[in-house]
Amino acid sequence: MDGKENRFVALIGALSQGLLAVSGLMILSMAFTATYGVTRRYLLHNPEPYSYEISMMLLLWCFVLSVAALQRQQRHLRGDFILNRLPRRFQFFINALLSPLLAGLCSAVLAWKGWEAAMFSLKIGERSMSAWSEPLFPVKVVIPVGYGILFLVALTQFFQGIQPLFKNLDKR
User: How far apart are CA 149 and CA 164, in angstroms?
Assistant: First the structure.
């Protein structure tokens, strides 16, 4: 890998780790929001409808923003119980080439369609049907952002998986 590729991979890694930290803060915020809602409802006998909705928005954002870091750390869902029974070449093919390629394709489609849905939501001024009636664009725009970063992570993993194949060709 040359210097530019290393910087790109490092940038994607730092970005995904930063979003993982933001996701952790969102989990903490969800805990405070839920505690506030429960306190108002059961201790003060004054329920409010917003804490549940805020928690649901943060949950979506938490998941979508953390998935790229999980993929980068290879802690995403994997079928190790099946993979470990396959020959090493198949394991390499699936782990280094096929999985990142399929993850990249799926995340590209999710980012593309998510972007279309977010822009449509912004265009029509879509709002939730709850008592709060919050605008849905901020909720929807995080989907293409998170899956776009997942696409970049999968793309770098795919190219890192291809590199050993080209190094073997150079040795011949």
Answer: 24
The C-alpha atoms of residue 25 and residue 31 are separated, in whole angstroms, by: 10
| Distance, CA of 8 to CA of 76 (rounded, Å) | 22
Answer for the pair 111, 144: CB distance below 8 angstroms, yes or no. Answer: yes
- As separate numbers, helices (DSSP H) first and strands (DSSP E) second, the chain gives 6, 0
DSSP states along 14-82: HHHHHHHHHHHHHHHHHHHHHHHHHIIIIISS---SHHHHHHHHHHHHHHHHHHHHHHHTT-S---HHH
Nearest to 76 by CA among 29, 22, 16, 1: 16
Q: What is the pLDDT of residues 48-86, one digit of tens each?
A: 878 888 888 899 999 999 988 888 887 766 666 777 787
Q: Would the pTM of this model clear 0.85, i.e. be above it?
A: no
Q: Which residues of the chain, if any, have pLDDT below 70?
A: 1-2, 76-80, 168-172
